[in-house]
């Protein structure tokens, strides 16, 4: 597709999105204009345009002022024309509502308009080839789906998943070619495509993995959008429905406490760990935790994954003393080398990863020493219960020369999303208030009988720590702690059965309680918290296991936050005009 065709397709997408805001009465005038690409020799333009239109219609919430998919289909039925017949034919393929499809079938049976050969044969389209394109560092896979018409017409859809973005769908590419053409083009540029491999994949596995990638993308906030996504979603889902079900999804990695400890122990006993400080295992535990924010593989490293770790993630997620943080690059080099050996990665690729650490180490060390500013800094200060600094968030938010400047709404949306994550989701954000927590006893409802004694003991130990600190919010913290213990017991009963000292269990719960209530960093030092339970360090593996059990995908939950902690977030929202 040349530039002119691509521009026409994008204009058609804009028209489709604009059309969804029209009232039903104006559709008769707009329908013909939506059928862009119908008379072009290749189906790509018309399919892409209709996909964008159907995506906009089906993505609108039920209470929006947009025309519903059912009303739109009715407007097509009420407007007999060649263009509406063509739109109905494609929408019938895209729609997953059987009643709607039957309604369209009844209408099409009465229509006699002459359609292009490729459209008349839409039910005969087959998937001729399904392959997966991989690269050495496994940062992302491209799934290629090749559609073939009886007359030899072909179309391919390339679906990119991003391993450093929780394996979510990142983009979709539509081309009027076959996969063999893409392979040939890459073969002509071996220097730029070294290590890229096209490998066969079972169609059922491709369906399972791409479906999972779509679902993971749906969980992201703000939603990810490109020139092609989510406009291409109906087209992609139509293709996926052609594939068999029952395939294998993405690999699942067990990053619970026991699995983390096993990896840490193997690394610490390896030659690569020789000469590291005794606390290196704790740092490696955090590096394994980091894998959960990408594809889950704790042994996979790449230059991109290293860059994100050193320039962003570590500063936002990990709390360690300055001395430990300065040791991170050295520990990371040793761990990356060991991981490369474990995975059988060629020495030259391990060297590339080590070079990435060298590249980003100065920025990491500078970030430790410099005051943190911008959005991430402000959200960290809010989480710590500290006053907000006088910072122009919109000027300080990082910009990319290749991207359009961020609008104020984009920044506010990111802040709202971060606060929603602290509370347990958007519903909790809407219901946010500063009512004090009532006095509640520990609930043992539905707690398995074999862990009841351990749960009671942990709750009592945390309660004692709260009492000893004599904080102003002591009474509310007791209730919050009891709720938190109950949530963890129900969320992952197996974690209580694993070998761990009572002190580690109680310390992990206290850590999560104080973290959720913005008491760490400012009022309670992590080192002192560990010491109060007779430990040298807070147990990262148990903390991470219990965090997942209590909060799932979120960072916290409003039900275990004191009124003071919730008031801090209410004030932050007010400062942003929310």
List keywords for this structure.
5 strands; 26 helices; alpha+beta
Summarize the structure in short.
The chain has 578 residues and is an alpha+beta fold. It is built from 26 helices and five strands. A five-stranded antiparallel beta sheet has the order 4-3-2-1-5.
Protein model, in words:
By secondary structure, this protein is of the alpha+beta class. Helix content is 55%, strand content 7%. It is built from 26 helices and 5 strands. It has helices spanning 3-19, 27-34, 44-59, 69-77, 82-94, 98-108, 117-120, 179-187, 203-218, 233-241, 257-268, 280-291, 303-317, 322-343, 347-369, 374-383, 393-396, 408-423, 426-430, 452-469, 474-491, 493-497, 502-516, 526-532, 540-551, 563-575; strands at 126-134, 140-148, 154-162, 168-175, 197-200. It has a 5-stranded antiparallel sheet with strand order 4-3-2-1-5. The longest helix is centred in the middle third of the chain and has 23 residues, at 347-369. It is globular and about 85 Å long.
């Amino acid at each position: 597709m040349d530039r002119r065709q691509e521009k026409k397709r994008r204009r058609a997408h804009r028209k489709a999105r604009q059309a969804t805001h029209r009232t039903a009465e104006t559709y008769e005038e707009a329908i013909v204009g939506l059928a862009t690409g119908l008379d072009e020799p290749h189906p790509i333009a018309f399919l892409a345009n209709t996909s964008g239109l159907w995506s906009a219609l089906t993505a609108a919430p039920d209470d929006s002022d947009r025309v519903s998919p059912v009303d739109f289909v009715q407007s097509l039925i009420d407007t007999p024309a060649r263009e509406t017949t063509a739109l109905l034919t494609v929408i019938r393929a895209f729609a997953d509502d059987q009643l709607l499809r039957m309604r369209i079938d009844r209408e099409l049976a009465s229509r006699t308009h002459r359609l292009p050969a490729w459209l008349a044969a839409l039910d005969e389209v087959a998937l001729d080839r399904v392959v997966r394109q991989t690269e050495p560092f496994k940062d992302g896979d491209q799934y290629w789906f090749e559609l073939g018409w009886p007359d030899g017409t072909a179309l391919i859809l390339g679906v990119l998943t991003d391993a450093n973005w929780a394996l979510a769908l990142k983009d979709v590419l539509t081309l009027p070619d076959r996969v063999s053409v893409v392979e040939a083009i890459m073969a002509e540029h071996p220097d730029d495509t070294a290590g890229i491999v096209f490998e066969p994949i079972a169609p059922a596995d491709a369906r399972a993995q791409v479906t999972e990638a779509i679902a993971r993308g749906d969980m992201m906030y703000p939603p990810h959008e490109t020139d092609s996504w989510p406009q291409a979603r109906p087209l992609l889902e139509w293709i996926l429905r052609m594939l068999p079900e029952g395939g294998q999804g993405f690999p699942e990695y067990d990053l619970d406490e026991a699995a983390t400890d096993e990896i840490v122990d193997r690394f610490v006993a390896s030659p690569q760990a020789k000469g590291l400080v005794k606390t290196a295992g704790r740092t490696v535990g955090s590096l394994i935790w980091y894998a959960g924010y990408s594809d889950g593989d704790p042994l996979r490293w790449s230059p991109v994954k290293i860059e994100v770790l050193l320039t962003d993630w570590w500063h936002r997620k990990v709390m360690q003393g300055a001395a430990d943080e300065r040791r991170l690059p050295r520990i990371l080099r040793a761990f990356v080398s060991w991981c490369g050996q474990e995975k059988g990665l060629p020495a030259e690729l391990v060297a590339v990863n080590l070079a990435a650490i060298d590249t980003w180490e100065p920025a990491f060390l500078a970030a430790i020493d410099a005051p943190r500013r911008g959005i991430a800094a402000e959200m960290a200060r809010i989480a710590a219960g500290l006053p907000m600094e006088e910072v122009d968030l919109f000027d300080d938010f990082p910009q990319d020369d290749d991207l359009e400047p961020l609008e104020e709404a984009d920044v506010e949306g990111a802040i709202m999303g971060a606060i929603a994550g602290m509370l347990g989701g958007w519903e909790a954000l809407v219901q946010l208030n500063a009512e004090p927590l009532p006095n509640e006893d520990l609930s043992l409802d539905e707690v398995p009988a074999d862990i009841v004694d351990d749960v009671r003991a942990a709750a009592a130990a945390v309660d004692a720590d709260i009492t000893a600190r004599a904080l102003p919010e002591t009474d509310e913290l007791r209730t919050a702690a009891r709720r938190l213990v109950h949530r963890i017991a129900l969320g992952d009963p197996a974690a209580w059965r694993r070998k761990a000292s009572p002190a580690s269990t109680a310390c992990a719960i206290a850590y999560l309680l104080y973290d959720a209530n913005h008491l760490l960093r400012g009022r309670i030092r992590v080192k002192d918290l560990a010491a109060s339970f007779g430990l040298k360090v807070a147990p990262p593996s148990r903390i991470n296991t219990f965090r997942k059990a209590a909060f799932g995908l979120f960072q916290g939950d409003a039900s275990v936050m004191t009124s003071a902690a919730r008031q801090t977030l209410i004030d932050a929202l007010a400062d942003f005009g929310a």
